[in-house]
Amino acid sequence: MRSKKNASSTEERVAISEGNVAAQTTRSSVLGPHSSALHALTVIRTYLRLGLLNMVQYRTNFFFELFGVTVHLATALLGLAVIFNQTSSLNGWSSSELVMLVGIQTILGSLLGLVIEPSFQTFMENVRLGTLDFMLTKPADSQVMVTFQRVEGGAIAGTIAGATILGIGIARHGERIGAGQALLFAAMLLVGIVIMYSFLLILSTLAFWFVKLDNVLVIFGTTFDQAGRWPIGIYPGWLKGTLTFIIPIAFVVTVPAQALSGRVNALNVAGACLLAAAFLLGARWFWRYGLKHYTGASS
Amino acid sequence: MASARAGAFSPGNLAAFYRQRFKVDLALQVAYRGATFIWLFSLIVQPLVSLVVWRTVADSQGGSAGGFTAGQYAAYFLAVMVVNQMTFMWHMWEIEWRVRTGVYSGILLRPMHPIHEDLVANLSFKAFTLVPLIPICVLLAVIFDAQFDTRPVDIVAFVPAVALALGLRYTIEWALGLIAFWVTRAAAIHQLWASVTFFLAGQMAPLSLFPKPIQVIATVLPFRWMLSFPVEVLLGRLSGRGILAGLGMQVLWLAIAIVVMRAVWSRAANHYSAVGG
């Protein structure tokens, strides 16, 4: 809804940003291939800065996002209250551990809405309309540009709300969290983001073959919103398998939460890291393969 | 203006409109089946997750919690899945988009009350998606070992109960959608309504698990009658007298909702002003 309203102005902004990126691009491509990672960082920073400027421009959106995520979190926490009225632990998880899980899920969901979802949606739209060709002519990594091309700054509200809930969960949990634990948590969170991102990149890349695909992101979004709020252990085997390999949200939310409460085992950590690496490499390969397959709008 | 003339349609004309429109909408559902099935997917996931969660609660309490066994929880949420599919509506959210983009300018010129057109679209979606939903529910009932205590009389009573629930939820939410004629960001209000409904209509958990005051609120207000009541009927949890009283409450609330909806609509139509139309 909101994006429709602001679509035209966002496009203008992006147009400005693209000029900006291109200018910086020519400068760094002179420097040679060694600076490509640095160059990618410049591109990313420029897009993020523009997203932030957009958010400052449309402040009201931020407050509506904040209201929305507050209602969402209140619903989730009230639901937990009803459940823990009947039992003291859910599959070995205490109520404060589940509050932490909800916080982590909210943070990850907001990152999804901040960059990944809007960018990939724009990408699929660009494939359909043929405007992707303009982006491909630019001297920067196409995957980086496609990933960061649209930033919905208002989604930061979710990050703030999620971090607050996570803090409340940690405080209620009452156990001291050591530096090693915190570090492991941060690492597992990163692993989760990588899995989520790679999976969505693979789905979006399919747009090179199937043009009308935008609803496919909805499937992931719904599953993440609904199923991601609970520890993976509660699901029966066939659903566990689905949520690990077909719609991979198992490692994304549960493992970071386990890391925080110090209940993660080495096997899970290794499994999550392996899965993330495989997904990232696979997604990168598939993106390049898709790009080769792409023939442009006019052909 | 449009609503003033809406009364001019005879039941025969209206029935002919519904028949033709239903055919057109059904063809649309078939044409855009990809999008339709993704909608169906979201209607399945949410109750399925609740089912798993509450089965886990029951298992952790030795097989039964809050008056439901694990199998009864499975039956409860499968019934919620079906009843929610039959009673939900999306037009509440769509009205805001129509007002903002000026689509309503054209709709207001038509001689018929616009609620009919939306209702047909809603019914055609349900007719189309019920076909895959029923076998999916049967499969899930087998997988999760669902335990239904349904008597024959419950199946008979379920038909009017779910029809009235659909009418009630549809009328209320359509009227709520009209808030968009006055407020630009009505979606925030709609989201709040959806969250309250999630609890008080029994989607999150059976109403009997909530504290007494909340149960009273859900029963006095229309919430229980929009979803929970047909579910309770289908599961065989109500006595004959309870079923009759419930149907009475549904009729009462439906009458109130229709009166309110008509009053809001005539004000909304007069208040409407399109930008750049």
Explained architecture:
The complex is a heterodimer of chains A (299) and B (277). By secondary structure, chain A is mostly helical. Chain A has one domain (2-293). Chain A has twelve helices and no strands. The model of chain A is unreliable at 1-19 and 21-31 (pLDDT under 50). Chain B has one domain. Chain B has a two-stranded antiparallel sheet with strand order 1-2. In chain B, strand 1 (64-65) and strand 2 (68-69) form a beta hairpin. In chain B, helix 4 (70-87) packs antiparallel against helix 7 and helix 8 packs antiparallel against helix 12 (228-234). The longest helix of chain B has 32 residues, at 240-271. Chain B starts with a helix and ends in a 6-residue tail after the last helix. The model of chain B is unreliable at 1-6 (pLDDT under 50). Classes of the chains: A mainly alpha (299), B mainly alpha (277). The A-B interface holds A 1, 4-5, 60, 64, 67-68, 71-72, 74-75, 78-79, 82-83, 85-87, 89-91, 212, 215-216, 218-219, 222-223, 226-227, 229-230, 234-236, 239 and B 34-35, 38, 41-42, 45-46, 49, 52-54, 56-57, 60-61, 65-66, 93, 96-97, 100-101, 143, 185, 187-188, 191-192, 195, 198-199, 204-205, 209-210.
